[in-house]
Design goal:
InterPro entries: Glyco_hydro/deAcase_b/a-brl, NODB_dom, PuuE. The protein is α/β, with parallel strands linked by helices. It has helices at 69-92, 103-107, 110-119, 138-156, 173-180, 227-244, 264-278, 288-298, and strands at 27-35, 98-101, 122-125, 162-163, 185-186, 196-200, 203-207, 250-257, 283-285. It has one domain: Alpha-Beta Barrel (TIM Barrel). The chain is globular, with a radius of gyration of 19 Å.
Length: 313
Amino acid sequence: MTEPYPRDLVGYGEHPPHPQWPGGARVAVNFVMNYEEGSEYSFPDGDGRSETSTAEAPQSPVPDGQRDLAGEGMFEYGSRVGFWRIMRIFAKRNLPMTVFACALALERHPPAAAAIRAAGHDICCHGWRWIEHYKLAKEQEREHIRLAIDSLQKTMGSRPLGWYCRYGPSVHTRTLVVEEGGFLYDSDCYNDELPYWVLQDGKPHLVVPYSLVTNDSKFGRGIFSTADDYFTFLKDQFDMLYEEGETQPRMMSCGLHMRFIGHPARAIGLARFLDYIQGHDKVWITRRIEIAEHWRRTFPYQPGMEQIAKVGP
């Protein structure tokens, strides 16, 4: 082999760094509300199809090429009702979260944007629209990133400092994110439980991994059926991490979708989990930007720390 293998299958290995979370926390828990409703594929946005892949009826009976009003309504529930329920649950407990914000979706709901600002939740850019970036040409993707930043700057009053695509990035995404220059981290990876540095096009860049494991999207795939399913699964994940965290603390990312967990029979499982982990004294429930900033302070990049030499063609 003449070319270096473009993947890192080893990572931190057997002895990862002790993250030194604030307060001696055993686990850093970050809740992420994915704000996507209003930016998904739709006829009003000229896509020629209605997005139903992550709604209550993922296999739409509406023929291809026709507008699925029922599917649209399932998404609208998220922004009309689910959003406010999730916000109330976190406000009642005075807990922070991160919003993975599709810029166009938030632009279309000024009251939600204002509520997020007032609550102090941080924004991680989830793209201009909720579409697959790996389907975009490089110049298209560059333009989508620009549109997203400009939109969130106007809607939220400040630019986003984190980045995360729908599902996964293209081979150009990280190059474009680093090229843009204003992002402190991206979360376009699922391969670890601690942040790590990469060297992208010769520039150090921080990755704060995300997770689809402790993610409420499993309701849409039939893996979670009840609030008890959800609560038990997240509790087991947390309990294992908390036990290991006595000597090796980690982070736990919990993805939330307004059109899923925002329904009462599911939201009660989220409320139970929040109450459960708040009963532990060595847990840091925090925003994603604070994890990134903590890592940058505690483990500033030094040559040789990078785990992946390059992502891209």
